[in-house]
Specification:
Mean pLDDT: 92
Helix content: under 10%
Structural class: mainly beta
Order of helices and strands: EEEEEEEEEEEEHEEHEEEHHE
Shape: globular
Oligomer: single chain
Largest sheet: 7 strands, mixed
Strand order of the largest sheet: 3-6-9-12-15-17-18
Low-confidence stretches: none
Distance between the termini: 15 Å
């Protein structure tokens, strides 16, 4: 249980890493590189993290340059990230406020988006039982304001090629025509990386956007196509109704019991 903390001037305000049955609630996470990270790394002894709830938190103004050790995993996270879920099963993100995070409100990505899919990628040499694709993820009831207006904030004070720049610059490239709907990166961004060229909502990633049109509340980035040489601005899709308004099996997730003493 991570609750009622104020977290500031870190790379990651909150991390839930390779863990199961966690509740993150009532926290104020601001002026970090990322407000929170929920992630599953591929080569640790424990894998199979699941049942994580992130709810009723305030993630705002997380635009601090990433000062993490360039050899570490969190060094990949771009400045301006409200929250990021990477390769975890059964995560519910609800009733939070995401405000003024310059690159991303909420991002949902696979191991491959972080580490690649070539033969040297740790995703290809993972501990047995590791699942590289995030699955059964639901984001609902969140409030998003002023996020994604300036993904290139990563370069503002740190122009020297820190690993965090790569993903931030990729997101910034989405402003090329036709550009991000509403003039800002979508509130919820999903990498859309599937094995074997799959399409649709194969892994039950769900948001509660309005669906239809190009409101920009949700974007499937199709980073598998970007990896094949296409530009981000030419392949992402806004508000695919397959991802809007659905509920993964087994949701809502149960609360984490807190022992009494």
């Amino acid at each position: 249980m991570v609750r009622t903390n104020v977290l500031t001037h870190n790379v990651a305000g909150i991390e839930i890493e390779n863990s199961s049955n966690a509740d993150v609630t009532g926290n104020d996470s601001h002026d970090n590189t990322a407000g929170f990270l929920v992630f599953e790394l591929p080569t640790l002894p424990k894998v199979g993290g699941h049942n994580i709830r992130v709810y009723s938190n305030n993630f705002h103004d997380n635009n601090t340059q990433n000062f993490g050790d360039p050899s570490g995993t969190v060094a990949l996270v771009p400045a301006g990230t409200g929250g990021l879920v990477l390769a975890v099963t059964k995560v519910e993100v609800f009733n939070n406020t995401f405000t003024n995070n310059s690159a991303l409100g909420l991002a949902i990505v696979s191991c491959y988006a972080a580490f690649g899919a070539d033969s040297n990628s740790p995703c290809m040499h993972a501990t047995s039982g590791y699942v590289a694709i995030p699955n059964s993820i639901q984001a609902h009831g969140n409030t998003y304001m002023g996020n994604g207006a300036d993904p290139a904030v990563i370069l503002a004070n740190n122009p020297d090629g820190h690993p965090s720049h790569a993903f931030g610059l990729l997101i910034a490239s989405g402003f090329l025509p036709p550009g991000w709907a509403g003039g800002h990166v979508s509130d919820v961004s999903y990498d859309g990386v599937f094995p074997l060229g799959g399409t649709g909502n194969l892994y039950s990633v769900c948001t509660d956007g309005t669906g239809g049109g190009s409101t920009g509340k949700f974007a499937n980035l199709h980073l598998d196509k970007v990896a094949q040489g296409q530009t981000l601005s030419s392949v992402y899709e806004f508000d695919d109704p397959a991802f809007i308004g659905c509920t993964p099996q087994g949701f809502p997730l149960p609360a984490v019991p807190v022992p009494t003493f």
